[in-house]
Amino acid sequence: MVHWTSFLRAAAAKPDVGLICLRTLFVVMLVRAWRPVFNPNIRVVSRRSCVPQSRNTVLVHALAMIPACFAVFRIRPLICAGLAAIGVVVAMRSAHRDGRRYERETIRLSFKTVSQDRSYPDQLWIGACVVLGAFWMLSLYLVVRDIFSPTVGPDASILRWIARFILLILSAGGMALYSQRPKGIAAMSE
After folding, report:
1. Higher-scoring residue by pLDDT: 123, 164
2. The three-state (H, E, C) secondary structure of 40-74, written as one string
3. For residue 27, what are the contacts with CB-CB under 8 A and spacing of at least 6?
4. Which of 106, 130, 155 is the last residue of a domain?
5. Is the Cα torsion angle 8, 14, 15, 16 positive or negative in sign?
């Protein structure tokens, strides 16, 4: 019997194994995205709210998967990754419009509101700080690592600029999060 760690050891020894798994995953995602387009009997809903998605949203999502697959297969990866990101944003916007249309038609809210406990805003703010801090530390590590041991390759400079941009965005997000801290936490820090 083959142990599951043997696959991980093979992936570490041959980096192409991980790329093959990633390509397989994206091809499966592409097929799953296009199934509802060709078969109208398949009903696609948003995960949390069970709002049915329109044909346009399903089509935009499927179209966004094509450049994502091209990027994984290294066919103009930067252009295709940008197009895939734009497609995902458009699909999210279209799904949001579907939710609002569903609310108007059925006269019920898609998402249930959370009861406003006294501790809820504090917990949400602390959780957002923890997540933002973890991503900030990861991006800071990437930027510092590139300073001391720069990567080489055709896309190395682009990746360095992306890491710096992400660090800048996360820093701005941290400042915005700090300025919007709840009153109870603001009183403790003064």
Report:
1. 164
2. CCCCCECCCCCCECCHHHHHHHHHHHHHHHHHHCC
3. 69
4. 106
5. negative
Specify if 94 maps to a domain: yes
Query: To which H or E segment does residue 29 belong?
Result: helix 15-38
pLDDT in tens, 1-58: 455 566 555 555 555 666 787 888 889 989 999 999 998 888 887 766 678 888 898 9
Burial zone of 72 (CB within 10 Å; 0-12 exposed, 13-18 middle, 19+ buried): buried
Q: How many domains, the chain?
A: 2
Mean pLDDT of 142-157: 82
Please tell me the distance from the alpha carbon of residue 148 to that of residue 87, in angstroms, as a whole number: 36
- Domain span at residue 179 reads 120-189
153 and 82 co-located in one domain: no
Q: Do 40 and 72 have their domain in common? A: yes
